Prior knowledge:
By secondary structure, the protein is mainly alpha-helical.
Amino acid sequence: MKYSGPKDRVDAARSENTSADELAFLSKADEIFVRAAVARNVNTPINVLNALAARDLSSEKDWEIAANLAENPNLRTETLLKLMESILRSSKDIEPRDYYQNLTVLAVSRSGAATPDILTMLSNPEYIPKHLRYNLLQSESRLELIELLLKDPSEKIRKRANSFLPKI
Length: 168
């Protein structure tokens, strides 16, 4: 597991041919972009994904890892729940300009591991600010989430949710 520099590490972290042991090693790299690539790699072992999800989302770097983690198609529901707990602890502080924070919340809503309970948390105005709920409504939004947001206290969000309902 010798790498001559950051480029070699990120290339290995992105590769589908990298072994589980190497991905575990790379998940502890100093470079944020290497750890983010590990989080997104479909071959990253579940225990490594769990460790990455357990981090506190206290910095922009942590949010970058979280966004990549939420986009991993092999993410399990229990791992997504850990990530969701971290999101909820800081969701009220997320501003519209916070790129990775917004991307993370959107990725969680699109994750195949997102249960109805997770979607309910994402649509709850007590936890998730209005701008985040509004941004969850996109052409790829899950119907369950759209239906939840049709009941939002904000008329603007309800109108947007209605615009994404399938036309019959």
